[in-house]
Amino acid sequence: MVNDDLLDQLQCGHLAELQARYESVLASHGYDAVLISSGAAPLRFADDQGYHFQGYGPFVHWTGLVGAEHAWLLIRPERKPLLQLHTPVDFWHATAELPQAAWVTAVELAGSADGVPPLTAGCGRLAVLGDPALLQAVAGDHNPPALVADIEATRVHKTDYEIACLAEANARAAPGHRAARQVFLAGGSEFAIGLAYQQATGQREVEAPYHSIIGLNDHAGILHYQFYDQVSPELPRSLLIDAGYRFRGYCSDITRTWAGPQQGPFQALIVALEALQKRLCQAVAPGVDFVALHRKTHLGLAALLDSAGLVQGLDDEAMVAAGITRAFFPHGLGHLLGVQVHDVGGKPVPPPVDAPFLRMTRTLEAGMVVTIEPGLYFIPSLLAPLLTGPLSAHMNRRLLDALMPCGGIRIEDNVLVTADGPRNLTREQLP
């Protein structure tokens, strides 16, 4: 586990760095201050219950306070940030307490019973960021697009504090993944696997960075499978678990795939895809075009499909050009990671037409943290055109039919880009 004293020291440095970054952005856009709303969960339609709340990214970037509703953060040049938390008198719910951590010495800390914004008179030209529904009565320029884009860009390069938090988020997710595998091999249901993951990590799912994807058998081929069957399948062929942990606001995003007993061909594919995934992780370095790395993934997947006998009679380039690899691997190679799972700032330009779902179009630079997550799936709706169209002669239908009930494979690590080579935050904890 990470040393708390070291984290406190790093967090103070993080806040100083953010102050400098924000001052530069404000000056470049002609603003004197920016007021950031943490947000608040809206009520469900025709109900008195709210949705689970997770704070607005820029607010969490500064504070790490994911659950602080109706809070405000005022950033002004050459002054401490003003952090105002909502502290109502309420006997129905627990209310926020003013934090006592070391980092609060770097801010002006205040409580507010009504949650209204702090006074901004005298701040000059003011930008206000947050959910438009909560800003209607707030003076200032609301969410100016150019300013928002540059503030989002302040999150692309991680500080030492952020890297430490992301590493810890990986460390705390690892026991959950090990527990999930054990329950799967013991014949557990998706629901039981999900409970085992939460028990091992000690974090409720609503506190985690995203709803865990836990797919057994053909459910592993549904990319964002959202349900948990409570009944175990008669024959446990495969488990795909995509689950993370949130630490001080920072997210891990890890995927592993496991084969059940007597699933030799599927296990062989897992081994082959993991070998490709590890090569891609090793290729992460400053100056690498992420779009080019995504395309390299498709060439690697084509070679895998050929060696496994799933596709026959086509060379790798022809397989990619014909769109065959996209049917087996329809999503992007990865994305930026931070206080949001799909962190902002990764797409300064739109993805190319041959990779419409790619969430990262930047050239890699030191300080970025990205996910590397190639996949190989047997999705009926995507494979049907290949099996019935002009390319059908190249498809090994017998082998595909045998593997279809296994759903698919995804292997995902969180990788820091450094000048000295990649640092795989996930493999440090989960080989």
UniProtKB/TrEMBL annotation:
Binding site for Mn(2+) 1: 253, 335, 373, 412
GO MF, any single term: proline dipeptidase activity
Cofactor: binding comment: Binds 2 manganese ions per subunit.
Domain Xaa-Pro dipeptidase N-terminal: 13-148
Enzyme Commission code(s) on record: 3.4.13.9
Known cofactor(s): Mn(2+)
Cellular compartments per GO CC: cytosol
Record keyword Manganese present: yes
Entry keywords, A to Z: Dipeptidase, Hydrolase, Manganese, Metal-binding, Metalloprotease, Protease
Domain Peptidase M24: from-to ranges: 165-419
Gene Ontology BP terms: proteolysis
Domain of life of the native organism: Bacteria
Positions contributing to Mn(2+) 2 binding: 242, 253, 412
Catalytically driven reaction(s): Xaa-L-Pro dipeptide + H2O = an L-alpha-amino acid + L-proline
Task of the protein: Splits dipeptides with a prolyl residue in the C-terminal position.
Family per record: Belongs to the peptidase M24B family. Bacterial-type prolidase subfamily.
Official protein name in the record: Xaa-Pro dipeptidase
Organism this protein belongs to: Marinobacter mobilis
The gene coding this protein: pepQ
